[in-house]
Amino acid sequence: MQAANRLQKALRTGSGLTFGAWQMLPGSNHSRTIAKCGFDWICVDTEHGNIDDAAMHEAVAAIAGCGVSPIVRIPANEGWMVKRALDSGAHGIIVPLIYTADDTVKLLKSAKFPPQGQRGFGSPFPMEKFGIQTTTEYLHQANDALLTIVQIETKEALQNIDAIAQTGVDCLFIGPFDLGNNIGHPIIDGKMDDELHEAIATIQKSAKEHNKSTGIYCTSGDQARHYADQGFHMISVAADMIALPAYLTSALTSAKGSYVHSALNIAKGAAAKMTGPYGR
Predict the structure, then answer these.
(1) Are 229 and 19 in contact (CB under 8 A)?
(2) Which of 42, 79, 203, 223 has its C-alpha lying 20 to 30 A from 233's C-alpha?
(3) Is 50 exceeded by the pLDDT of residue 271?
(4) pLDDT band at residue 67 under the 50/70/90 scheme
(5) How far is CA 194 from the centre of its chain?
(6) Is residue 101 a contact partner of residue 166, using CB atoms and an 8 Å limit?
(7) How far apart are the C-alpha atoms of 239 and 217, rounded to whole Å?
(8) Which among 30, 48, 57, 233 is annotated as catalytic?
């Protein structure tokens, strides 16, 4: 089962570097299209994305069927949300708005079967997302084979980072936009203040000291490469709600004007930096 979890396997071998994509729009064909681009993992975003429970199940199946790890970001640290995501066959979960180590302990109890936790057992769906697995094999292996990833994006989580890193979570995933907002240094027009850079460095340092993987949400390939060079492990490269509007706008701009005019417009658009995680 662990061998089928592409993200976990990559995080535990070599440099641990992985690249992923963010899916916010529903549809299994949409999921497969992204998965076939070569990513190690895809985050199925049920927090801010237009993805309900049924669409989540379809996306997880489609992504896993392409040999890519489906990771579900749940809307909140609620036990029933953890259960629904893992019961769909997700290879791991991303949990937003963590504040304290107690939050992570609560999360781990929801994500693990007894005796380590209190996750209920009975879904007929997750086994097939890990190749040929029996129900018994899934029950016995899931606690070690599934990833629990917490988003570090609040001022309180930054203050409690060492305590959070000492718990049994697998990865500290930085949400730079919310983190910037919560420490009083929001990202405006793509500019990150020194204080935000320092906060990110503090989180990475704590993760290293406690042998945890680190991840970060990026909005471009260049930014993703920067954080890969900094030693991060789980790095998003693009979101569908960035990629689709960007390409369509660029193509339309080229179609509407002369070559020189369209080139200037594209350059102007490229220079526009992002204030939010999915656009201006």
Answers:
(1) no
(2) 79
(3) no
(4) very high
(5) 24
(6) yes
(7) 10
(8) 48
DSSP alpha helix (H) spans, 168-239: 176-182, 194-209, 221-229
Pairing outcome for strands 234-239 and 92-95: unpaired
Check whether the bond before 176 is cis (ω within 30° of 0): no
Q: In Å, how far are 31, 125, 241, 251, 277 from 246, measured between CA atoms?
A: 19, 36, 9, 9, 14
Q: What percent of the chain has pLDDT over 90?
A: 86
CA 199 to chain centre: 19
Amino acid in the structure at residue 126: P
* Partners of 41 in beta bridges: 20, 69
Sign for the pseudo-dihedral over CA of 41, 71, 121, 65: negative
Give the pairing of strands 18-23 and 147-152: unpaired
Contact of 177 with 196, CB cutoff 8 Å? no
